[in-house]
Amino acid sequence: MKKFVNHVDHVAWMSRPENLDANVAQLEKLTGATLTRFVREDMGFTMCISWEAGLEVVAPMERRTEFNAWLWSELEKKGEGVSSVVFGVKNLDAHKARLEAMGFPVGPLMDDHPDSPWHDKLVLWERMAGEAMNTNIVLGDIDYADAVIPFGEA
């Protein structure tokens, strides 16, 4: 398996639910990527992602949940746009300890849902790590199956 280390893994945009289809279509047109939709009714959000391209769009559902309250708060505060940058690290626990020693609060461990349509492509562990320049920074320890990221020859 491969992972991005000390490098941006992927970027996540926040979308209003009523604009999700149009926002994803625009991003797909601009990049040529195809984003796969995954609905998490239990947590109250829809995510569209291309792991291959490093692009993600998240929209909270209208029904408020404990999890999507943060998504709604972000939308109300910042509007649509880039919400988070996921930065790849080799050892999530070591990076968490380093940041906490410097006084940065680090969020709880998040992993991938086993029913996701890409679960066979990667092993995902993430933690919120604060904000820089009005953008959330997420630490990602993500192991990709060998054929997921399309590296080309220079």
* Average predicted confidence as pLDDT: 93
Which residue ranges are poorly predicted, with pLDDT under 50 across at least 5 consecutive positions?
none
Characterize the main sheet. Answer: 8 strands, mixed
What share of residues is helical?
Answer: 10-25%
Report the β-strand fraction as a percent range: 35-45%
Would you write up a description of this structure?
- A hairpin with a 2-residue loop joins strand 7 and strand 8.
- The chain has an eight-stranded mixed β-sheet.
- The chain is of the alpha+beta class and 154 residues long.
- The longest helix is centred in the first third of the chain and has 12 residues.
In a few lines, what is going on in this structure?
This protein has 154 residues and is of the alpha+beta class.
Task: Compile the SSE list and pairings.
Elements: E1 7-14, H1 20-31, E2 36-40, E3 45-50, E4 55-60, H2 68-78, E5 81-88, H3 92-101, E6 110-111, E7 122-132, E8 135-144
Parallel strand pairs: 1-4, 5-8
Antiparallel strand pairs: 1-5, 2-3, 3-4, 6-7, 7-8
What attributes does this structure have?
8 strands; 154 residues; eight-stranded mixed β-sheet; alpha+beta; globular
